[in-house]
Design a protein that fits this description.
The protein has 140 residues and is an alpha+beta fold. The protein has helices at 10-21, 41-54, 88-97, and strands at residues 5-7, 29-37, 60-65, 68-73, 80-84, 109-116, 120-128. It is built from three helices and seven strands; from the N terminus they run E-H-E-H-E-E-E-H-E-E.
């Protein structure tokens, strides 16, 4: 039987404590951008929903249990917030300007989809470093 509560690895503990010590920090925010051509919004929604469902870390939150930090798997599934932009550069600039700290009391990932001209989508994934090292994006 699978648990919905997990002890944190030493790396996760360090990230958790660092974020708690400076809750307004965006230092551990990782931005990933996916330039998608020819897909419909609905298809991107389905792909992201499948990825989030498959990877428990993307629908987990962090809390204390008996004085120790833990990761709790939740039924809180992040979805894509959709908007438009005139270019890839504009969308990326807007995502950087809108960066805000993560509360680890909720899921450590946010998605924004930018509909671009020429049947393109820029998918921005903002994720806390506690759940993702930037090198992992290479395998997606």
């Amino acid at each position: 039987m699978r648990s919905n509560k997990y002890e944190l690895s030493p790396f996760e503990q360090a990230m958790y404590l660092a974020q708690l010590s400076d809750p307004e920090s965006t230092e551990y925010s990782v931005d990933c951008y996916f330039d998608i051509s020819g897909a419909k919004k609905e298809d991107v929604d389905l792909a992201v929903a499948g990825m989030v469902h498959y990877h428990e870390i993307l629908h987990s939150r962090y809390a204390q249990s008996n004085g120790e930090p833990v990761r709790l798997v939740t039924d809180e599934y992040p979805t894509i917030r959709w908007t438009t932009a005139s270019s890839f550069e504009e969308a990326k600039e807007r995502s950087i300007r809108k960066r805000r700290p993560f509360s680890l009391k909720s899921v450590p990932v946010r998605f924004t989809g930018y509909e671009l001209p020429d049947n393109r989508i820029l998918l921005h994934m903002g994720i806390h470093h506690i759940a993702f090292d930037g090198r992992s994006v290479m395998i997606w």
